[in-house]
Specification:
The protein is α+β, with helices and mostly antiparallel strands and 231 residues long. Helices cover 31% and strands 26% of the residues. It has 4 helices and 12 strands; from the N terminus they run αββββββββββββααα. The longest helix has 40 residues, at 148-187. The protein starts with 12 loop residues before the first helix and ends in an 11-residue tail after the last helix.
């Protein structure tokens, strides 16, 4: 059946309206995104849905065609009839996967590892005889590189979560060791020699002065342990 043919122009206005009504009843409704953005190397889905006024049969066919952004002829990159038939030639070879479901009116496909050279127009066409007339939605694919800073975001965040606690512990240990070393160095400075009693007393006192001040005060009453008689 053909709508708007030469014979149609010879019909009476009432007949023309009837013919247009029949064509409208036999037309498919296809929906697809006007544009899809993708990133180099990251899988991208081209969504396409359809609605037919007739039950789905084995005669249903789906075709995806492609025209590069630079122009040129349309080329078929995918065909479906009962089973999917991805293209076996050209730059889309082994890169097209079927993810649709004709029973649910889904004619979507997936492109693996897209590149910027894939930019262009994709057209989803569906025929379910005798329902073969439909609109022709076009999808513009735009592939681009991801920003360097965005690529590092997840890696930097993971590194911070893993290494930050360790870094904090190491810094605290270094600070503690530094303070301990400073105290030991101060105690080794030439001056008076403390008795064992003074050393034990020092650990029990919690006075407010500095270590150097305490040492200076005790040196004033220093006891020469070398002259003590051993017991």
């Amino acid at each position: 059946m053909r709508c708007g043919g030469a014979g149609g122009r010879l019909l009476l206005p009432q007949g023309a309206l009837l013919l247009l009504g029949v064509c409208s009843a036999l037309s498919l409704e296809i929906k697809a995104s006007a544009s899809v953005r993708a990133y180099v190397g990251e899988q991208v889905a081209l969504k396409c849905s359809f609605k037919s006024s007739f039950p789905i049969t084995e005669s249903l066919t789906i075709d995806w065609t492609y025209r590069p952004v630079s122009g040129g002829q349309m080329e078929t990159i995918f065909h479906y009839q009962s089973v999917p038939y991805p293209t076996t030639v050209g730059k889309f070879k082994d890169r097209i996967s079927w993810v649709g479901n004709v029973a649910n009116g889904d004619a979507s496909i997936v492109i693996e590892s897209p590149s910027m050279s894939d930019n262009g127009t994709f057209i989803c066409s569906v025929k379910n005889p005798p329902d073969v007339y439909h609109n022709i939605p076009q999808t513009m694919l735009i592939v681009r590189e991801r920003g360097f800073s965005f690529q590092l975001t997840s890696a930097v965040l993971l590194s911070i979560l893993v290494f930050l606690p360790s870094i904090i512990v190491v810094v605290l240990l270094l600070v503690r060791m530094g303070r301990k070393f400073a105290v030991q160095k101060e105690k080794k400075k030439p001056g008076c020699k403390k008795s064992s009693i003074e050393v034990s007393d020092e650990s029990e006192h919690t006075g407010t002065g500095t270590c150097l001040g305490k040492l200076r005060d005790r040196c004033l009453n220093c006891v020469d342990t070398d002259e003590e008689d051993p017991y």
